[in-house]
Amino acid sequence: MDEKLNGREAQRRQTRERLYAVAIAEFKKTGMAAADVGLIAKEAGVARGTFYFHFPTKEHVLAEFERAEETRVCAQLTHFLAAPHDLSGALAEVIRLMTTMERRIGKVLFQEMLALHFSPRRPEVLPGADNWAAYPVMTLVFQAVELARKRGEVYEGADVLHTAQFFMLGLYAMLITSRDHPKAIRAEILDNFLTMVLRGVESR
User: Do residues 58 and 35 lie in contact, with contact meaning Cβ atoms separated by under 8 Å?
Assistant: First the structure.
């Protein structure tokens, strides 16, 4: 009996993984909003209802993908922050990691992933826009700003959480609104944004 249950569970996991992989591939081609659940199910070799058994909505697939990408970014950022750095370097690394992610997954999927945080259809597995501290990347940025404050790079009275929130929300806005700009102009926009953030918290 246990072997049968284990076999069925393994089959369910395989089906879920196959659906997830096909769905993400389709999202990258067409975007999540335009992706057809029926086509995803067909390409995965299952019935349409099987998709909804594993994922209540397409947004649940995207949320899982977002979490996986965030885990990747956090690992890389943690490694960077373990070495000597200043706040400028830490925030520049966040920008580099986010733009690298965008290139890897594509601009359409990247934008939809960011927009999901503010969507009324956001799955419950993602914290709300009013609970950014629950996101691991936000936590690392908060810690980087706090350490910079202790080193004297940031003025003593700075609100560390609000600074981290302003940086991350501003970065998302800059990335979304500049997505179609030439590379050099976009780099300048991001550099100017970073300079503005640093000047706002520098020691007085």
Answer: yes
Cβ count near 6 (within 10 Å): 10
* pLDDT per position as a tens digit, 43-58: 999 999 999 999 999 9
HEC-encoded secondary structure of the chain = CHHHHHHHHHHHHHHHHHHHHHHHHHHHHHCCCCCCHHHHHHHHCCCHHHHHHHCCCHHHHHHHHHHHHHHHHHHHHHHHHCCCCCHHHHHHHHHHHHHHHHHHHCHHHHHHHHHHHHCCCCCCCCCCCCCHHHCHHHHHHHHHHHHHHHHCCECCCCCHHHHHHHHHHHHHHHHHHCCCCCHHHHHHHHHHHHHHHHHHHECC
pTM above 0.85, yes or no: yes
Stretch among 71-75, 93-97, 125-129 having the lowest mean pLDDT: 125-129
Name the residue among 93, 89, 99 with its Cα closest to residue 76.
93
Question: Hey, what are 32's tokens?
Answer: 């999540």
Report the DSSP beta bridge partners of residue 154: 202
Eight-class DSSP state of 132: G
Burial tier of 178 (Cβ tally within 10 Å: 0-12, 13-18, 19+): middle
Mean pLDDT of 164-188: 93
Place of tokens 């020691």: 203
Task: Convert the pLDDT of each residue in 24-41 to its tens digit.
Answer: 999 999 889 899 999 999
